[in-house]
Amino acid sequence: MTFTAQNTAQAREKNQSHRPKEENAKTDEQHDAFKWYWMSCIFALLITMYLHNSWRTTEIPDHLIGHTSRFYPEFITEETRIELVELVKSMQIFKTLNKDTVPVNRTYKNVGEAMPILEDGTCSEPFFIPTLDGTQCILPGRYEMNRHWMKYGGLEGLKETYEELTSRIKFFMYARYVFDIKNHPVVKSLFYSEKFIKAAKEICPAHKQVLDPYQFIFILQVPGQTIPIHLDPPYFDRTSRYHIPEWLLIVMIGSGLFKDQMHDHVQGVAYLHEWNTSQNAGNFAYFDKNEIVPSYISPNPRAVMLMDGSKTMHAAALYKTEVKPPLLPETAENELKFNLTDDLWELRSDEKLLKKYKTSELRISIVYRALCFENEDKMKTFHEWIHSGENVQPLEEILEKLKEELVKAKGFSRKSLDTMSKFDLATVLVDEFVKYPLPTNSLFPYNYCFLPTIYPWTESIFKYIC
Ligand SMILES: [Fe+2]
User: Fold this and answer.
1) Ligand 1 center to residue 315 CA distance, Å?
2) 105 CA to middle of ligand 1, Å?
3) Distance 269 CA to ligand 1 centre (A)
4) Is the pLDDT of residue 19 over 60?
5) Distance 85 CA to ligand 1 centre (A)
6) Does the pLDDT of residue 98 top 80, yes or no?
7) Topology of 68-109+161-438 in CATH?
8) TM segments (predicted)?
9) Gap between the Cα atoms of 261 and 385, Å rounded
10) What is the pLDDT of residue 44?
11) Measured in angstroms, how far is the CA atom of residue 216 from the centroid of ligand 1?
């Protein structure tokens, strides 16, 4: 010990011996508290690091990675883009999906989870939505997507309430899907351009080179909106969205048990807005590798992304990250209406004007899809079957196959699967077979602000931070 250090130690000892005993005890207590504080911090940090690493491990099944996709930065001409925007304006009214959108002739409208609607027209369980006739509540078509979105807050790991997150994904569309392609020459030109045919055939399997254009949809988004991670509902040999709920089609894809019966398709996502991506984000994201960080492409005007959206998980990142969209209640009629007199889009919820947007402020895209067939005969057979109502795979047969897999590969007891409610069964199927990745950069991936929706007693805790 040096002279100075020795002196200091002696001085401290002297000081302590002169201090009252209570004061010494207090100092020791403070020292202990300080020590425990830091130990807790280090422990919490280690736990967070461990969890962070574990939830960054993705579980995308092998059959859903490595599929061909193509990005073309300048695929459609400027004239076509302008013509499509004019078509959008002429369609004038775009609405959000609120109530159930089950096709009236769907063979199985739900899997048995339907429950009575409440007197005020709402549903008692989170996620459930009223049926079109307003007599019951059932799980929404995209239950698997909505559940993941609410639990994790999407690519960005948002921590927001149910109402806020719902408003972010309620994009606007003219009709759910438009099938009368021939009535819209400019859309028809998208499908029949040599460029599209050549590029689309690269996405279809080599032995399925007959293209069958079958639908398109315009998607309008206001600043602050996004599209959660999802797969697109496919057609199977004996079932489709006209026969069972979409979320079950996605479960079928995820399980890998029905992949030989799935129809291949190619979808183009074309961007029609005027703005450049650098200031607005809203990138198209897709998971072509089994990694938590997706590949991104910029949604620049005239760009097109081509892929089979039933084979590769994809999403749109937040458009204008700093903006929160106006609240769009689930029970309200929400619409974006183009006003020809002032050239502005009016966002209304139950007739109440919430905000006005210029066309240049919107994120506008068109999604157009064509099926891939081996030959004309197979295409004809498919068309004859799809609305015939014949040779439809029974719902029980699908559920049976999935249950067998849950027992064989996931360790579930058959008895528990047979006795649980159909709502619980739907949730088990979604959680076990649909493995959308968790937020890319979030330290804590769970959206705790969703808890008050499931457990109302937690509202008093979370209202201060959410
Ligand atoms: Fe999609």
Assistant:
1) 7
2) 24
3) 9
4) no
5) 21
6) no
7) Jelly Rolls (2.60.120)
8) 36-55
9) 14
10) 76
11) 12
Question: What average pLDDT score do residues 260-280 get?
Answer: 89
CA of 30 relative to ligand 1 center, distance in Å: 57
CA of 314 to the centre of ligand 1 (A): 6
Any idea which of 152-161, 178-187, 340-349 has the lowest mean pLDDT? 178-187
Q: Which residue has the tokens 């997706």?
A: 294
- Distance (Å) of CA 109 to CA 160, 239, 419: 31, 13, 21
Q: Output the CA 308–ligand 1 centroid distance in Å.
A: 9
185: exposed, middle or buried (Cβ count in 10 Å: 0-12, 13-18, 19+): exposed
Ligand 1 centroid–CA 249 distance in Å is 14
Using CA atoms, how far residue 315 sits from 22, 39, 143, 352, in Å, is: 63, 40, 16, 30
Closest residue by Cα to residue 406 from 390, 420, 392, 387: 420
Q: Where are the domains of the chain?
A: 3-54, 68-109+161-438
CA distance 271 to 299: 6
pLDDT reported for residue 225: 97
Encode pLDDT of 363-419 as tens digits: 999 999 999 999 999 999 999 999 888 999 999 999 999 999 999 999 999 999 999
Alpha carbons 431 and 343: distance in angstroms, whole number: 45
> If you average pLDDT over every residue of the chain, what do you get?
90
- For residue 309, report the distance from its CA to the centre of ligand 1, in Å: 6
If you measure from the C-alpha of residue 230 to the centroid of ligand 1, how many angstroms do you get, rounded to a whole number?
Answer: 6
- The 10s digit of each residue's pLDDT in 51-95 is 667 777 889 999 999 999 999 999 999 999 999 999 999 999 999
Tell me how far the alpha carbon of residue 369 lies from the centroid of ligand 1, in angstroms: 10
